Amino acid sequence: QTVVTQEPSLTVSPGGTVTLTCASSTGAVTSGYYPNWFQQKPGQAPRALIYSTSNKHSWTPARFSGSLLGGKAALTLSDVQPEDEAEYYCLLYYGAAGVFGGGTKLTVL
Amino acid sequence: QVQLVESGGGVVQPGRSLRLSCAASGFTFTTYGMHWVRQAPGKGLEWVAVISYDGSIKYYADSVKGRFTISRDNSKNTLYLQMSSLRAEDTAVYYCAKTPVTYYFYGMDVWGQGTTVTVSS
Q: Under DSSP, is residue A82 helix (H, G, I), strand (E, B) or coil?
């Protein structure tokens, strides 16, 4: 069974920079896994941030960026704002089937 | 604006069936793939199924394969999820979401607000 692994939790100070990663149990993540990133706040539906590794949606703030880093997909938040505190999920594709990571709870403190 | 509205959730006994609907508006439904994603109480997101823009191609998570069927009616701009042989572990909020690029399978951009399914006797 394929497992997608994210950091369970991270803490960052306001104005700081943090990188969340997304690893695959099958090996290095490449663009062929079409990495996606989502933000979810309590009681809300997920909000899409990044698709196909690094493409932003029209509503994605400029301080969010996606990349491949050291064999993993990565989401970097720069100049972190208090409102960025949330759960973040990555999604990888194995063929046409998607697998979400377990999520990273980001605390802004 | 682009909008997705799920409906059809409720409380259902184990082994029974339920059909979810997702009404789409504000975009050309016939050119986008569509997904179902679910989230069990207090848990993370789980991808459930995807359907191509014309309904000809469908893929499922192993956890629902053979029990759930994704379909769409492009004349009604509506996506469906027929769920049968329901189990307690299918209890979740079910979201529909559209793909970000036309004629594409991968990823989601706009999500609905979800509909809750509770499987319990």
A: helix
